[in-house]
Design a protein that fits this description.
Helix content is about 55%, strand content about 10%. The protein is α+β, with helices and mostly antiparallel strands. The protein folds into two domains: about 5-85, Glutaredoxin; about 90-200, Glutathione S-transferase Yfyf (Class Pi), Chain A, domain 2, CATH 1.20.1050.10. It has a four-stranded mixed β-sheet, covered by helices on one side. The longest helix has 21 residues, at about 130-150. The protein is globular, with a radius of gyration of 17 Å. The N and C termini lie far apart (about 35 Å).
Length: about 220
């Protein structure tokens, strides 16, 4: 397993969904890495982020002299480099579906993201669920239900065992909790499985200790 030559640069744990994704994947699969946290919207972030990330965004992964940025690219690299491909389902069909739902999460759900920015410390209902947010939420829940029904027989996650797909949907699970969005018992069961992960508990505990407050995360 890697060690000191691997560094993952992340933002605030309370606010950064993009950072959570690869961090959670690496942690749950036991990949050793150093963490460098750069609080968002700070002078330190602006001064240092260019050193680590050519896009000037988090997350970024440094492995020796190699830099990988973007949460999906980091997860793909980790799966190929350290996980023996276990970030994705082993069978071609489920693997194709997993990649599809990850791509949809990576590029979509703009209304839900805008209305419900990740804020792990928040516990208050969304004042108004407009139609675009409702559609996004319904689509997320439909993905969860479909994947669990078709591929989740061997475990509590979308494709049975924890993988990249779950790392990508973990941040939206936190949004559903933080903004008290409507869901069914079967959806809550999946959310509970995400929150029960040791890595997720560690991330949430660290987020609770952060003191930064962002007006527009």
């Amino acid at each position: 397993m890697p060690g000191a030559d691997v560094t993952l640069i992340v933002g605030n744990k309370n606010y950064s969904p993009w950072s959570l994704r690869p961090w959670l994947l690496l942690r749950e699969f036991g990949v050793a890495f150093e963490e460098r946290r750069l609080p968002l919207d700070t002078e330190a972030f602006e001064e240092e982020i260019g050193t680590y990330s050519p896009s000037r965004r988090v997350p970024a992964l440094r492995h020796g002299t190699l830099t990988v940025w973007d949460s999906l690219a980091i997860c793909e690299y980790a799966s190929e480099t350290w996980l023996g491909g276990r970030g994705w389902p082993a069978a071609a069909g489920p693997r194709a579906v997993a990649r599809s739902v990850v791509a949809e999460m990576h590029a979509g759900f703009e209304a839900l993201r805008a209305a419900c920015a990740m804020d792990l410390r928040r516990r208050a209902p969304l004042e108004r669920i407009d139609e675009p947010v409702r559609r996004d939420l319904e689509r997320v829940l439909a993905i969860w239900r479909d994947c669990r029904a078709r591929f989740g027989a061997d475990g509590p996650f979308l494709f049975g065992a924890f993988g990249i797909a779950d790392a990508f949907y973990a941040p939206v699970a936190t949004r559903i909790v933080s903004y008290e969005l409507p869901r069914e018992a079967r959806d809550q069961k999946y959310i509970d499985a995400i929150y029960a992960l040791p890595g997720m508990q560690e991330w949430c505990d660290a987020a609770a200790l952060e003191t930064e407050v962002l007006d527009d995360p």
